[in-house]
Write a structure and sequence with these properties.
By secondary structure, the protein is mainly β. The protein has a single domain, classed as Galactose-binding domain-like (Jelly Rolls, Sandwich). Strands 1-2-9-4-7 form a five-stranded antiparallel beta sheet, with no helix packed on it. A hairpin with a 5-residue loop joins strand 5 and strand 6. The model has no long low-confidence stretch (mean pLDDT 93).
Length: 134
């Protein structure tokens, strides 16, 4: 079960994410959501805070459509222990691609904030999940 709420933006709103705009397939006739009826379109950072269960790592998965290879997504997880995890993911093309990352959780961390920061233009996102790994 995902620790993120509204990871597919199916409420039609970004909440509880902060930032970004939720759009449907009518936003661009050639880009439908990866799954469901809605996706998030953003050129600015958006984030969500989660409470962490005990564990040593998490799995992050999401779908992104970056339009081209020049748009980069920075993923940053800030733990309440002060130890951030950061990775930059280059765009590929104007198709949906699923990205997966394994994130180590620092000892003693109880909360984390995932911040997604697109650069060089808008990127569409969908199907975010953040799950504890055994």
């Amino acid at each position: 079960m995902s620790l993120l709420v509204n990871g597919g933006f199916e409420s039609g709103s970004p909440s509880p994410w902060t930032g970004g705009s939720v759009v449907g397939a009518s936003d661009a006739s050639w880009i439908s959501p990866y799954e469901g009826e809605w996706m998030l379109r953003s050129g600015q950072p958006f984030s969500q805070q989660v409470t962490l269960p005990a564990g040593t790592k998490m799995g992050l998965s999401y779908a992104a459509n970056s339009y081209d290879k020049h748009r980069v997504t920075r993923l940053r997880v800030d733990f309440d222990t002060g130890d951030p995890w950061i990775v930059d993911v280059a765009g590929i093309d104007d198709q949906w691609h699923v990205f997966q990352h394994e994130i180590p959780v620092p000892s003693g961390a109880t909360t984390a904030t995932l911040t997604v920061s697109p650069s060089n233009g808008y990127v569409r996102y969908d199907a975010f999940t953040l799950t504890p790994l055994s």
